[in-house]
Batch of 2 targets.
Target 1
Amino acid sequence: QVQLVESGGGLVQAGGSLRLSCAASGITFSIYAIGWYRQAPGKQREFIAAISTGETTNYADSVKGRFTISRDNAKNTVYLQMNSLKPEDSAVYYCHDYRTTTWGQGTQVTVSS
């Protein structure tokens, strides 16, 4: 059974940084493409970033140049480094495994102005 567990969220001031982690279990992690999404109150869940098995990355325009997705297959973990955070980045952040369509439980990020 695939499990994804996010961590690293919290409260940060505008301009600050956070690093989110998505730890996977129950899969051969290295063959899975993983994405990060977020959902703010009253809004639809939106794509943020994704990383392929070959470490090709893709970003939403809203986070390009500020967020970086990476993976450590030895640790079965995908990271999302978030810099220059803005209040509009506040949301619950989820990781997603595209092969099994599994979602994690989410981690809250709150950016104060």
Note: The CA atoms of residues 28 and 76 lie 8 Å apart.
Target 2
Amino acid sequence: QVQLVETGGGLVEAGGSLRLSCAVSGLLSNIRAGSWYRQAPGQQRELVAQIYRDGRTDYGDSVKGRFTISKDDSKSAIDLQMNNLKPEDTAVYYCYIPSGYWGQGTQVTVSS
């Protein structure tokens, strides 16, 4: 059974940094690709960043230049380094891997 567990969320002041990690278990091979999404209260879930099998990455416009997604096969994890955080980054952050596997989410709150 594939399971995803996110850690690293918390409360941080604007301009600060957090690193989220998504530990994946139950896969029969290394993580091929993965994504981070977020959902703020009253908002739809939106794509924050994704990493492809070949290592290419894509980011949402609002986080480009501030967030970095990476994949660590030795830990079977997908990480999201978030720098220069803004209050509008406040949301529950979810990890996703194909096909159809979601984590439970971790809360990120950025105070102004």
Note: The mean pLDDT is 95.
